[in-house]
Amino acid sequence: MARYLVTGTAGFIGARVAAMLLEQGHAVVGVDDMNTSYDVRMKEHRLNGSVHEPRVEMNYLRFSS
Question: Which domain covers residue 15, as residue numbers?
Fold first, then answer.
């Protein structure tokens, strides 16, 4: 089992990549800033199933200059 860092985990592509890695038995370190570029409820919905998975470490970070 490998451990992968997935950025944008709450987004469409990041959520799918994380799900595929979990299906293959890997661990995922997720990073997302949960910005409001589109409906945050969609992002929360995508994370809902995987956040409680023991092989997922989710981090909410905001990067700004």
Answer: 3-60
